[in-house]
Amino acid sequence: MATEASGTERTIGQLVADATHDLEGIVRGEIALAKAEVTTGAKVLSKGAGLLAGAGFLALMGFVFLLHSAAWGIAEWLPVWAGYLIVAAVVLIVAVILALLGRKALQNARPAPERAIDQAQQTIAVIKSTGSEPAPAAAAATAGSAATAGSTSTAGSASTAGPASGNGTGPTAGTSTTAPPA
After folding, report:
1. 69 forms bridges with which residues in the sheet?
2. Residues 4-11: what's their mean pLDDT?
3. 150's torsion region: left (phi>0), alpha (psi -120 to 50) or beta?
4. d(Cα 182, Cα 142) in Å, to the nearest integer?
5. Cα separation of 66 and 1, whole Å?
6. 112-121 long-range contacts, CB within 8 A, separation 24+
7. Contact (Cβ atoms closer than 8 angstroms) between residue 141 and residue 125
8. Nearest to 86 by CA among 95, 77, 76, 74
9. Where are the domains positioned within the chain?
10. Beta partners for 152?
11. What is the pTM (predicted TM-score) of this model?
12. Could you tell me which of 162, 157, 151 has the C-alpha nearest to residue 133?
């Protein structure tokens, strides 16, 4: 059932080529639109950031003048140098308090996903032990290796035996203990 292609009908190859060409045009147009939107957004963001930086600078200058005025205000009762010394001491005390609070906040931060890492280690231990040993022994080996941070142990070894005080009498972090073959 062959049909003759008249001058107005196009072949499947021509239709696919036209569709591909049209699709490329659409994709290029979308990319150009995205670039224009990102460029416009970046310009607005940079303008806003510049205005905020200017506001921050002016606020800092205002704070300096406020401290200067406070020093001159104290100079009504004390010498000028004493007024500046008092203002400087107060500013430094506030800076030290803020630094200590910031340091404490950073020490309390736990950026590592400790629970996720522990779960992953337990999952790996269970997967490794599914064919070679029963699950309770694998859980005991996982618990034993988790109890001594950094130590590696094989199943059945008592890697937590002995004090872990670091006085050289027992296994410590970074050591590897293996059980003798049975």
Report:
1. none
2. 70
3. left
4. 20
5. 95
6. 118/146, 121/146
7. yes
8. 74
9. 15-107
10. 176
11. 0.41
12. 157
Residue-averaged pLDDT of the chain = 74
The three-class DSSP label of residue 158 is coil
Tokens of 74: 């104290």
pLDDT tens figures, 35-51: 888 888 788 888 888 89
pLDDT at 93 over 90: yes
Q: Dihedral sign, CA of 114, 117, 121, 123?
A: positive
What are the start-end ranges of the H helices in 75-134?
80-108, 114-129
Amino acid symbol at 105: A
Task: Write out pLDDT tens, residues 12-30.
Answer: 888 888 888 888 888 888 8
| Two tokens, residue 117 | 């890492």
Query: 109: left (phi > 0), else alpha (psi -120 to 50), else beta?
Result: beta
Question: Rounded distance, CA 168 to CA 134, Å?
Answer: 34
Which one-letter amino acid corresponds to residue 103?
R
Q: Give every CB contact of residue 144 below 8 A, 6+ residues apart in sequence.
A: 153, 157, 158, 159, 160
When mean pLDDT is compared across 24-33, 93-102, 135-144, the lowest value belongs to: 135-144
For residue 154, CA distances in Å to 128, 137, 138, 170 come to 12, 11, 10, 17
* DSSP-H helix ranges across the chain: 12-74, 80-108, 114-129, 135-147
